[in-house]
Structure formats: structure tokens, C-alpha cells
Amino acid sequence: MPNPSGGLSIAKLIAQRIGSGVLVLVAVSMIVFGATYGLGDPVRAMLGNEATPERVRAVAHELGTDRSLVEQYIAWVEGLLTNEAKSFATGRPVSELLGPRLLNSMILAGSAGLVAVLLGVAGGIASAFWRDRSLERLASLISLVLVALPEFVTGIFLVALLSTGVLHLLPAVYIGSGTVLDPLALILPMTTLVLAAAPYILQLARATMIEVLESDYVRMARLKGISELRVVMIHALPNAIGPIVQTIAIVLAWLAGGVVVVEFLFRFPGIGTAMADAVTNRDLPTVQAISLLIAGLYIVLNILADVIGLLANPRVRHGSR
Fold it and tell me: pLDDT tens digits for 292-319?
């Protein structure tokens, strides 16, 4: 029986997911802040082993690394919230340093995500529609192999195939100022991300569509003489879209972290190369900011996936007694 308080129940569940996400983000910020000190003394790394103790103490006092970890953590959080956190390596605000890099990463991950979603969903629907045929089995086998391969292996294979070995069509790494993207520089890293993400979406979309196509209401629609295309588009797809969209949100969350490895591989001017450079320079504020940014995006997209799952569940949406 429908429950008139169903909408309130959904709002409560969503609020719980958001509250849990905030607590996880706070915990992650503490872990990130503490773990980055495992990189070593940033002052000693910046000045070198030949620096005098007086110089080390002066720079440590200037950067605030001579204070307790609790005081440094509070100052770090305040700096992030007020946009005043500064890079140890350059002295510039971290937001100013990461702004162009973040935009580049968003372009790369956004374009790769869009192509992966279109190919994955379309391929999953087609695979479910023509399942158990020879071509479909071959496509499923290829997608399973691509799912199992790490993205850096796929990237190295593409470089060997299209840049350095068989063909010489695309640049192996990005060469440029980092502020204006070369369209050719997007192709290899974007293809690497697409080949890593699309097969996963395809497999989940295929499994979901097969389950829906074998349901009683779809069988009833077929018995009524409705064409197979209308059965898929009108009866099956709307009932499968919830789990598929939830899967897409999870894959996009994976892209937030996977883009770091791919950018480093191709020297793409995004947050991945910024992270590698910051680790090399012991630039703790930049490392911490990037880590927290990726973790925050991952948490947001996972919350979004949970919310979509709740809204797609009729029992939760309408409530029950």
C-alpha cells in the first residue's frame, strides 16, 4: 500500500548518505594530512642536506612546519576553506596552481566519460538484445579482457601501436605549455580511459538488460505482439535505467582517480602530473589538496550513485507498510 510519507523517507535517507559522506571526507582529510608526512621533511627536501640548522629552523617557522600536527592540521583546513593554502615549492596559492590543471583534467575525464557512457550503454543494450550470437560472444570476451587490464597497460599498448612502433599517428606524450590543450594530445589518454571504463559499463548494462528482458511484464508485452524494438525501448529500458545510471556514477567516480595514472603516463598537464611533481618536490599542501579533491569527488559521485539507486527503487520511492 502506498505510504504518503514516502517522500519524507527518501529525504531522510538522502540526508543520511550526505551526512555519512561528510564524516568520511573529514576522516579522509585526517588520513591524507597524516600520511603526507611520510614523504619526509619538506623543509630539508627543499633546502638540501647542506643547509645550516639555523636556515632549516627559519624556513620551518616560516612555513609553519615547526608547530604540532594538530595546529598544522587546523591551519591547513582553514587555508583550504579560505583559499589561502600556499604551495611550499612556489609560494603561490594552491588554488592558483591547480586551477588550469583541474580544468584540463575535467576536459579529459569529461570527454572520456561521455564517450564511455555512450559506447557502454549502447553496447550493453545491443549485447543483451543479440545475446548468445557469435559476434556478441566475441565482443563480450574482448570487453572482459579490457576490464581486466590496468589502464597503464592499455596506455602503453596504444603508445606502442599508434606512436612509437607500428604507426606514427599521434604524439606519445603531451608537449606544450599546459594552458592551451592540443586536440591531438587528448586522443591517446582519452582512448585509454574509454577502453578502461566503457567495457565495465557495457557488462553491467548487458546484465541489467538481460534480467529485465526476461521479466514477466516483458514476456507479456511480447505475447501481445509488440515489436521487439518497442519492447526494448518502451518496456525494458525504462526499468533498467536506474541500475545503469547508478553504475555510470560509480564508473565516473573511478575516472576521478584513474585520470591521475593516465595523465602521468602521457605527461598530460592535469592534476595527475601536478600530483607527481608535488610529490617529487615534497610540496605537501599541493599533495594534500589534490588528494582531498579526488577523495571529495569520489565521495560525491558515490553519494549520487546511492541517491539514484534509492530513487530508482519503487519500494523506497513509494514506501510500503
Answer: 888 888 888 888 877 776 776 655 555 5
